[in-house]
Amino acid sequence: MTTGFLLGKFLPLHAGHQLLIETARPMVDRLTILVCSLPDDPVAGNLRLQWVRDLYPDCDVVGHSAIVPQEPAEHPDFWVIWADIVRAAHPDPIDLVFASEPYGEELAAQVGARFVPVDIDRTAIPVSGTAVRGDPATGWRWLAEPVRAHYRRRIVLHGPESVGKSSLGSRLARHFDTVLMPEYGRTYCEAFGTALDADDLRRIFAGHIAMDAALRRHAGPLMIADTDPLMTQAWAIMLLGARLPEIDAWADVADLYLVPALDLPWKDDGTRLFGNDVARRQFMDVAIGELERRRLRWARVEGEGDARLDSALAAIQTAGLTE
């Protein structure tokens, strides 16, 4: 049986790492992957370990998180230390050591294996973990979906009826070349009407979550959503005078909520219920209350047409969600 070994920080896991792993895997009968981490790494070691395990379930994926020298200049026994780490992760003899860095040759010699270099000059996959950490959007094409999910940021349009959430959401999605999660409550009401009870709102809640999860893998570094379950909770308060415990327990909140102001005229489109000024202001207060009670980041959006879009883009930039 031919055995292989490779190690890396996978900080974060990108297509260059995957090329290394997927080149090594068919060349051996058993491949061990050592995921190395330190306590102060910008991405937690356990998360990176899980990424590799999820993507390569047929490999032996082992973690190492002890503080050890990272470069030969840091310690005179650097290679002895790392040879012992490798033997602890793979006690049996190793036939092949795979690496995309020159260190692989010496590491292979230390453990009595043959070195197999893979894309050391980065010709095939021109990306680095440092570059991805600095600007995930630039390296987006090189990231597997579990890693994209870690870096993806979500922006939700939040607020009462007829404030231009859907129109603004569409414009933001086009601007950032990403997908828009539509307001599932509107879809539901167009199919079943607006006489909503608690069970209807629970169905809207469940439908929104399921569709949002399905859409995420199609999104870019930013994902735009036209409302989320916090607005379903606001509807519950307005319609039923009570909160839904299921939504209070929901925690998958967005990175930023944009709340369009009540500076557009109310329009009846057949699914809207609260058109007078008093009701609109009450609904706005309830909607903002849902954000405040969770201490979420939100920003008000104002203006008409392009000014409204510019207001939203400024809020997104201020929140640090885009360069």
From TrEMBL:
NadR/Ttd14 AAA domain ranges (all copies): 154-306
GO molecular function, one term: catalytic activity
Identification of the protein by name: NadR/Ttd14 AAA domain-containing protein
Lineage summary: Bacteria, Pseudomonadati, Pseudomonadota, Alphaproteobacteria, Sphingomonadales
